[in-house]
Design brief:
18 helices; 2 domains; five-stranded antiparallel sheet; Rossmann fold; alpha/beta
Length: 468
């Protein structure tokens, strides 16, 4: 009698087998509790492949020159590879498709998912309906398969930071805190999910997660492009979805078998051979980290074309990835310079200023020696809360940026927000810790909040150490 191997999730098992596509009946026993994701997958897998592989290829051919489709397909193909590329990839791949100009973002991801794995909607979670436990339960169950995270703009505040944790593949501490405030004692070093995350929404995930925005750059491809050409209507998209659904799941088994038989060191060498596609000369480490992930995606499409005799346009995807990578790195580098101007001014003007008992420092830019008191609090342009934030009056921020050569104020604020430095680019009344004797309603200023976790790497080492 063969030994029974019990599994609780999808993905790679022993002997280079991959549930639910290449595992052997009678050898693998699936733990699938009633109404669980695993039970649904166990049931669904028996319904496909459906239709024919030639019709599935016809759907791919229709979208072969659509770089957004090619990229989503590449993400689906790369997911089983991610856990096998240790040393080259030490975190997951993320692709964020966002923008308000066109519908179809979720559709193009589920079409790609259905064509390859046949499980489009089953591998999708909506942020608006998600819970902390639900996200990680789903991620663990579908491990090594791609994971669609739908409607980023509907993400509740309690889930801020989860995209970053998912890219790392590990539950952060805020993910594992029990409701009574105790820690669950889970191993933070153990991977909970390894694969490719496909985000979508009206705004990018780094805009939704200002505190984790800096950490998402260099880890997630931000794609602000229409998912389908502008002349394509809803009827065409629905027809494409129906065709994919009717001819789904033909590629998963042969694709995974191909990966299982491949030598991973040889695979890594092929990935390195694609270095010339993404020129790193003069680029920073952020670009390089993205380039490695981009090369994995490119190789997957190249191998898929060769294996299945398809004609996906790899060059169009390379152009899209390059544009995304350059925009991300340029945006961060320019925003770094802008943020440095702000910090240099704050540090210069704060020389000699004192911290309050509530770890705040107040600065009057026009009179740096003017110490906060109950008579002049309205003169204060900046409140620096130790290890937390800087509040700066909108008018003061405009003035110091203009002195630094950046006079297009609204555009600069948007760039700073996009890079994760600002909580919001729109000024508003912001509260700060109430000074002794100060009325609660007076402890506020009209301005912008700068986030310490995002800018602390720009502080002089001595200052950052002192603050930390």
């Amino acid at each position: 009698m063969p030994e029974i191997y019990r599994i609780h999730s999808c993905g790679w098992t022993r002997d280079n087998l991959f549930y639910p596509y290449t595992t052997q009946e009678g050898i693998i026993e699936v733990n699938a509790p009633k109404d669980s994701i695993m039970e649904g997958i166990e049931r669904e897998i028996k319904l496909f492949p459906t239709g024919s592989i030639d019709k599935a290829k016809a759907v791919i051919h229709k979208q072969k020159d659509n770089p957004v489709f090619v990229l989503m397909l590449a993400g689906c193909l790369a997911s089983p590879l991610v856990p096998l590329l240790k040393g080259m990839l030490n975190e997951n791949i993320g692709i964020d498709l966002f923008g308000k100009t066109s519908a179809g973002k979720t559709s193009i991801q589920t079409i790609a998912m259905d064509l390859i794995y046949g499980l489009g909607d089953m591998l999708k979670t909506s942020w608006s309906k998600a819970t902390p436990a639900g996200i990680w339960n789903t991620a663990k169950a579908i491990n090594n398969l791609p994971f669609i995270m739908d409607d980023s703009h509907r993400m509740p505040e309690k889930l801020y930071g989860y995209p970053h944790d998912l890219i790392n593949g590990k539950e952060g501490q805020k993910s594992t805190a029990a409701e009574n405030g105790d820690w669950t004692g889970k191993d933070m070093n153990k991977d909970a999910y390894q694969g490719v995350l496909l985000f979508n929404g009206e705004i990018s995930i780094h805009s939704v997660n200002p505190n984790d925005s800096a950490g998402l750059y260099g880890r997630v491809f931000m794609i602000n492009e229409p998912p389908f050409p502008m002349n394509v209507g809803a009827v065409y998209v629905e027809s494409l979805k129906d065709e994919a659904m009717s001819n789904r799941g033909h590629f998963a088994c042969p694709w995974i078998e191909f990966i299982a038989k491949s030598d991973m060191e040889e695979m890594k060498n092929k990935i390195r051979e694609l270095d010339s596609l993404f020129d790193r000369s003069g680029k920073d480490g952020l670009f390089g980290r993205l380039a490695t992930k981009a090369q994995v995606l490119v190789l997957c499409v190249q191998m898929f074309n060769q294996l299945f005799q398809t004609d996906l346009n790899v060059d169009s995807m390379v152009e899209l990835l390059t544009k995304s990578m350059e925009e991300q790195t340029d945006n961060v580098n320019v925003a770094d310079r802008q943020m440095k101007i702000i910090l240099d001014t704050v540090l210069e003007k704060s020389n000699g200023a004192q911290w309050t008992p509530k770890d705040c420092m107040f600065i009057d830019l026009n009179n740096p020696h003017n110490t906060f008191n109950l008579l002049n609090y309205s003169d204060m342009d900046i409140c620096y809360k130790k290890d937390d934030y800087i509040l700066i009056k909108n008018s003061a921020l405009k003035e110091l940026l203009a002195k630094g050569g950046y006079d297009k104020f609204d555009a600069v604020k948007k760039q700073l927000k996009s890079a994760g430095y600002l909580e919001d680019d729109k000024p508003k009344q912001l509260k700060y810790p109430q000074h002794e004797g100060q009325a609660k309603d007076d402890a506020r200023m009209y301005g912008i909040k700068l986030l310490y976790e995002a800018f602390k790497h720009l502080l002089p080492q001595e200052e950052a150490t002192t603050q930390g």
